[in-house]
Write a structure and sequence with these properties.
Chain lengths: 294, 188
Amino acid sequence: MTAKNTQHQPGDSMAHKIMERIDDENITPVPRWRFSARNGIFWSLWVLSVLVGAVAISAAIFSLANSGFKYYVATHNGFISFIFDTIPYLWILLLTLFIIVALENLKHTKRGYKIPLTLLLLVSILASLFFGFLIYLLGFAPVIDKTAGSLPFHEPVMEHQMKIWTNPEFGLLAGEITSVDPELTSFTLTTFEGEQWEILTDELRLQNEEILSLESEIRIVGVPDGENADTFFACFIFPWTVAGMPGPPHHEKNPRIDCEQGCEIFPDPPRSTKCKDVRPYEFFTKSNKKNVNE
Amino acid sequence: MDSDAHLKDESIAKRALTDKNSFAILVERYEAKLLRYIKRLGVFGQEDAEDVLQNTFINAYRNLNSFDSTLSFSSWIYRIAHNESVSFFRKTRARPQGHYVENNEDILARIKDGADTSSLAEQNLNLKTLSAALAKIDRKYRDVLVLRYFEEHEYKEISDILKIPKSTVGTLLRRGKTALQKQLKKST
């Protein structure tokens, strides 16, 4: 049957009805560029979803890298409570959501439906992981985490760490060394919340001195002085470093401490009983001994 | 002239973009089988089925520029017919009333031959029971069963019509036959 002959078909034939309707309603084929544009939009939305997933991954890496795993024996009641406190819930939720969006967009592309779901999932996740690591390595993760702090249910990881380490009743302090006693018997620590503490160094060891000389910001595990408010016995000190910051890590020598001539003020006598009561005493003492012997 | 009779659907579709009357050839080629397919999906009434069929052809003409030459024209227009049927059910909130299963023993034979389990093959399967059982199983299984055993499409074509991966077609067919078998057992 040729196109010409359909004009002579009975008026109620389907072909006749269709051609009549096409003429009456002025139906014309939609231009090709609209379909190409639609396909392009879905691909772009897939890319966008993968990038949002990458942002979530970079923030999750930042969150985990700064979770304070090395010190969890001091900051938490156990490993399980540390894990529950550390899991980056927001970023996992965001990643899951945007992977689903990515998959939906990919399925709507011209040929996306032919690809098995597991392969689509794998490609989307791998792409997010790759770009996520890249964003983290380039140092953008801290900004992302801080920006997400404006969300009502999310606390940026560094703010969370600052809260954990500003807990003198629990034996934890962190902040900046703002002044140092010339004989290094004590120094002043200004916490991130602006409180000032006098930190007594009697219980510190030689390896802690290195930290004091190199770092301006530190974290302290110790014991508050029950007799004097705002006084704290430091049992262990650690640097306050932030992983994932842009640029190479650097140690700026603390200008307030000068141990060029040797710092024999930290001999290694037996400790008093003060620090023996500090919860993770055994753990950190073993760690320190291991560092010294290496 | 019968020269057009030897032309492939894909060539006619391409020509219809500049000569709309060529589209009528495709309508004539596909109207009977698409009408049967639409009824098998559950658009039971003749008038409703013809409305869905008309919309199928109109949409096919409108979207002619989206026809992907890596597909067969048959798969492409079946996909449009499938989508129009689904839209019909959504708009009318109708449930499939039963499925048009004409008196064709070949269909029964294909289903029995394709059965993984002997119980389906051994059942005293009749067309009325089959139609009732099809109405009760999940749509996603019904769609692949109809395309495979009633419309005799290959896995690749079913994949293109329903826009699902080829591997999923196999999975749905297996599960569909199991679901159909359960329904048939209930009815005996």
